[in-house]
Automatic annotation (TrEMBL), chain A:
InterPro entries: MrpF/PhaF-like. It is found in: Cell membrane. Belongs to the CPA3 antiporters (TC 2.A.63) subunit F family. Keywords: Cell membrane, Membrane, Transmembrane, Transmembrane helix, Transport. Its main location: membrane. The keyword Calcium does not apply. GO terms for cellular component: plasma membrane. This is K+/H+ antiporter subunit F. GO terms for molecular function: sodium:proton antiporter activity. It comes from Paracoccus lichenicola. It comes from the Bacteria. The chain crosses the membrane at residues 6-26, 38-57, 63-87. It is a multi-pass membrane protein.
Amino acid sequence: MSATILTIALGYAQVALALAGCLVGTRILRGPRAQDRVLALDALYVSIMLLFLVTGMQLGTAFFFEAATVVAIMGFVTSVALAKFLFRGEVIE
Amino acid sequence: MSPLEAVPLWIAIPVAILVVLGSTLTLIGALGFARLASFYDRLHAPTLATSWGTGGIIIASALMFSVLEGRAVIHEFVIGLCIVVTTPVTLMMLARAALHRDRAEGSDALPPGLLARPEKNAPGE
Amino acid sequence: MTRLIPHPVLSLSMVMLWLMLTRFSLGYLILGTALSLVAGRAYSALHPAKPRVRRWRAIPRLAATLFRDIVQSNITVARLLLIEGRGTRRSAFIQVPLTITDENALAVLAIILTATPGTAWLEYVVETGTLTLHIFDAAQEAHYREMIGQIYEPMLMEIFE
C-alpha cells in the first residue's frame, strides 16, 4: 500500500520536475537577453537538483544526495560568476 | 520496489503529500518562468522553487530516509541551508546587473524615475 | 581564546554541518573540529567585519514570522502565476525609505525580501537610505510597505542595533 502511494507520488514528482526543467530550458533558448538566460540557468540547476533528490528517494539510495549537493553548490558558483560578468558590462550578445 | 515497501503507511502519506506539493510548486514556478513577459517579473518565479519547492522535497526525503535507516538522517537540510542562503545572493546580483545594464542602455523596461541612481557617486560601486 | 578560536559561532556551526553531512562518531567529531578551527583562522585572516548580535532572543520570533510570510506569499504568488494572462496583475517598482543602517541588518533584510516570493531586492542606496524593490503584484504595495516598516525593521533593529 505505502509502496503504491510512494511510487505514484514520486513518479508524478519526477515528471513534474523534468517538465519544469524543460520549461526553464525554453527560456534559456529564447532569452531574449543575457540576464534572462543566466536566471533561467539558475532555475534549471534547482530543478535538476530536486530531480536528483526525488530519484534518490525512489531508488532508496542516499548516493544521489551527494550529486544533488554538488549540483546545488555548482549552480550557485556559476550564477554568481555569470552575474558578476554581466555587471562588468562587457558581454557580447 | 523493495526499499519503498519498508516505509510504514503513516510516513508514506506525509512524504507523498510533501513531494507532490514541492514538485507542483516548482512546476508552477517554471510555468510562470516561461510565460511571464519581463525580466523583473521573472525574478519572482524561481523563488517558488527555492522556498517551498525545495523545502517540501527536502523534508520528505529526510523523513523517508530517517525511517528507512532507523536514525535521524538530516543531511538534506544542508542542501536546504545552502539553497536558502545562496539563492538571494544570486537573485540580488542578477537584479543589480540587469538594472545596471538597463540603465546603461536607457531601456524602456524601467520606469523613468529609476533610470538614474537616486544619488550619484556612491562609493564601493 | 580569541586567538585560537576567532569565530566561535562560525566554527561551531561548521562542526554541526560536518556532523550532519557524515554520521556522528568520535573520529568525525575530531576531524570536523580540527577543520573548523583552521577554517575559522583562515576566515579571520580576511578581516571581515564581525557581526554583533545584541539580542538573540528576538531571532526565533523573526524566524517564525518569516516562515509564516513565506508560506503565505508562496500561496499568493502560485495563484497569481496560475491565473497569469487572465487577471489584471501589474508589477511595480517601489521605493521604500529604510531606517536601519547596520550592514548585517541590511544583509538579513535582503535575504528575507529576496527569499520571499513576490518581492525582489533591486538596489539600496547608502546615501539616501532608500531601497528599490520590485513587487510582483502592484495591488499589494501597501501590504509590503507595512511589512517592511512595521514588522521586519523593528525586529532587525532589536537584534542588531
